[in-house]
Design a protein that fits this description.
It is globular and about 45 Å long. The chain is an alpha/beta fold and 275 residues long. It has one domain: TIM Barrel. Strands 1-2-3-4-5-6-7-8 form an 8-stranded parallel sheet. Helix 3 packs parallel to helix 5 (121-130) and helix 7 (175-182) packs parallel to helix 8 (210-220). Helices cover 38% and strands 13% of the residues. The longest helix is centred in the last third of the chain and has 16 residues, at 256-271. The protein is built from 11 helices and 8 strands. Strand 5, helix 6 and strand 6 (158-160) form a beta-alpha-beta unit.
């Protein structure tokens, strides 16, 4: 079972004020049909459609795509906690539109200002009630706040996107990495092993990240690591196939059962729970 936990699809936004806001421009249409071709070619059985940064809180397209085949797709919505009515909007996207996850983005400067503030606790309480998975697009400076939130809302599964964009230059002794590894004490926190090219200083296969992955593996265990392709951005960085095979090619200490957990079973249990 291969499950891709980090897929972005969207409708083009003509005239977007910042067409270079991410690797793939919002002025380009990235339809679900395009991703489906990669699913078919590489045997991806399920995928989590994560609302990208620039459409804001209009999660319509990812919700529509997921509802077209819920056994194959699930959607993660964005709700801006700074704006009035955040709790009501989350309930709408989950209860009415079928989303199963919420994405918070404190890596974005404006959203960082309220991350962890008590004013956002009602949103976390609603996430807990609705049993949604909270994905966090974070920077290392927010790891301790994530720990505080995990302690306050222990029933909420938390997935840290792109391994929290660690600074890999100091190696495994860096203070940032120690803060990330400390999060493993919270048994509902998962690390998404994706987006190496955002923080690596090396070209593929990102040798300066190998010790970081090993540290995450040792701390969280294979049961709390989830793979994601970061489609479509990965296509312009390293290509889909190399991304898919990276864990198997580089981390020879992973058993087949551990690879199965990381590459699909963990994400399946998070987003398509059996119980």
């Amino acid at each position: 079972m291969l499950v891709d936990s980090q897929v972005h699809v969207w409708r083009a936004i003509p005239g977007h004020p910042n067409p270079a806001v991410t690797i793939t421009s919002p002025a380009s249409d990235i339809p679900l049909e395009l991703y489906n071709q990669y699913m078919s070619e590489y045997g991806i059985e399920r995928a989590v459609l994560v609302q990208p940064v620039y459409p804001g809180q209009d999660n319509t397209y990812v919700a529509e795509c997921a509802s077209s085949d819920p056994s194959k797709f699930k959607a993660v919505c964005v709700v801006d906690p700074r704006l009035p009515g955040a709790v009501r909007r989350l309930e709408y996207w989950v209860a009415k539109r079928g989303c199963v996850g919420l994405r918070l983005r404190p890596r974005i400067a404006d959203e960082a200002l309220c991350f962890g503030d008590s004013s956002t606790f009602p949103l976390w309480e609603k996430a807990q009630t609705l049993r949604v998975v909270v994905s966090i697009l974070a920077s290392p400076s927010q790891f301790r706040t994530i720990g505080m939130l995990a302690a306050r809302f222990p029933l909420v599964p938390i997935v840290i996107d792109h391994m929290g964009h660690p600074d890999v230059r100091p190696g495994v002794e860096s203070a940032d990495l120690k803060d990330l590894l400390a999060l493993s004490q919270h048994n509902k926190i998962y690390a998404k092993v994706s987006g190496y090219y955002y923080f690596s200083r090396c070209s593929y296969p990102f040798e300066d990240c190998w010790n970081v992955f090993r540290a995450l593996y040792d701390a969280f265990g294979p049961e709390r690591l989830v793979w994601g392709s970061d489609f479509p951005h990965v296509l312009l960085k390293i290509g889909f196939r190399r991304n898919l095979l990276l864990q198997e090619r580089i981390y020879s200490y992973l058993s087949q059962s551990e690879l199965a957990l990381i590459m699909g079973n963990n994400a399946e249990e998070l987003y398509w729970p059996s119980g």
